[in-house]
Amino acid sequence: MKDGKTRSVYFVSESTGITAEAYGHSLLSQFGDARFTIRYSPFINTRDKAQALADELAHRAEAEGRKPIVFATMLDEEINAILKYAQCNYFELFDRFMSDLIEATGMEPSRQAGMSHGLVNLENYEARIETINYALNNDDGMRLNKFDQADVILIGVSRSGKTPTCLYLALHFGMRAANYPITEEDFEVGDLPDELLEHKDKVFALTIEPERLAAIRELRRPDSDYASLRRCIKEVQMAQDMFHRHGMTVLDSTTHSIEELASLIKKSL
Fold first, then answer.
1. pTM for this entry
2. DSSP codes, the chain
3. Residue 178 · residue 147 · CB < 8 Å
4. If pLDDT is split at 50, 70 and 90, which confidence band does 119 have?
5. Is the pLDDT of residue 113 over 90?
6. pLDDT class for 109, splitting at 50, 70, 90?
7. Burial class for 90, CB neighbours closer than 10 Å (0-12, 13-18, 19+)
8. Contact between residue 11 and residue 38 where contact means Cβ atoms under 8 Å apart
9. Distance in angstroms (rounded) separating the CA atoms of residues 248 and 262
10. Domains in the chain, CATH or no CATH each
11. 179-232 tens-digit pLDDT
């Protein structure tokens, strides 16, 4: 906050709290100068648990001299009422849209917790697990003969963000995402393997600023040639030459987060 003190922020739900956390973090990101202490309270699904949390919020407000901020997804009206009148700044995310959605759809909501993250649709859940397994089994070019099964293939130099982006694509978009690291052998040959180029239509190339790449590699292998700026500059330039030669879509992981990279890839496809 402006006075330099931290403000407690709670993500609360009668289920996992993933929705409240994602929405809350997005809103808080607009207050970059503020200092927040994040606290998680999932599975607040009884009145006793809600009252215990309300008591905790009151103690926190007294100790810190300001009310905590609470982002909640709380469909149970009785539990919601307990927290709504607790000593906090309460933002129940569903309430803010539900009445408009009821009017728009002409239907009443089920008010069932966990619908967005639970095992409601077993077929969809198993499909999502399968895509995650595919991403793990096809990480770092381990199975070049499985690229035909991929929805998307990410390539780039080592530590350019391929693996986390693949896992995000699998987890959030249900996409079969494989990746291939450009190796020293590829640089010596001066081109990418035929098994990869056969599927060029679904390849996205990741590049990164050499200075950022060197800093990331330094954490992995301190004081090594692998992390040297000289080598990073050389590898990035050689990789970019390959990308441009084959007319590949290039995304910069220096300036884009994993979420942004995944969204750009999803949109392009």
1. 0.69
2. -TTS-EEEEEEEESS--HHHHHHHHHHHTT-TT-EEEEEEE----SHHHHHHHHHHHHHHHHHHTSPPEEEEE---HHHHHHHHTSSSEEEETTHHHHHHHHHHHS------TTTTTSSSSHHHHHHHHHHHHHHHHTGGGS-GGGGGG-SEEEEESTTSSHHHHHHHHHHHH---EEEEEPPHHHHHHTS--HHHHTTGGGEEEEE--HHHHHHHHHHHSTT-GGG-HHHHHHHHHHHHHHHHHTT-EEEETTTS-HHHHHHHHHHH-
3. yes
4. very low
5. no
6. confident
7. buried
8. yes
9. 16
10. 6-105 (3.40.50), 122-268 (3.40.50)
11. 999 999 999 999 999 999 999 999 999 999 999 999 999 999 999 999 999 999
Can you read off the two tokens belonging to residue 70?
């609470």
Which one-letter amino acid corresponds to residue 141?
G
**C-alpha span between 84 and 96 (Å, rounded):** 13
Given a contact cutoff of 8 angstroms between Cβ atoms, the answer to whether 94 and 115 are in contact is no
Backbone phi and psi for residue 156, each to the nearest 5 degrees, phi listed first: 165, 170
Tokens encoding 74 = 């709380």
Long-range contacts of 223-228 (CB under 8 A, 24+ apart): 226/158
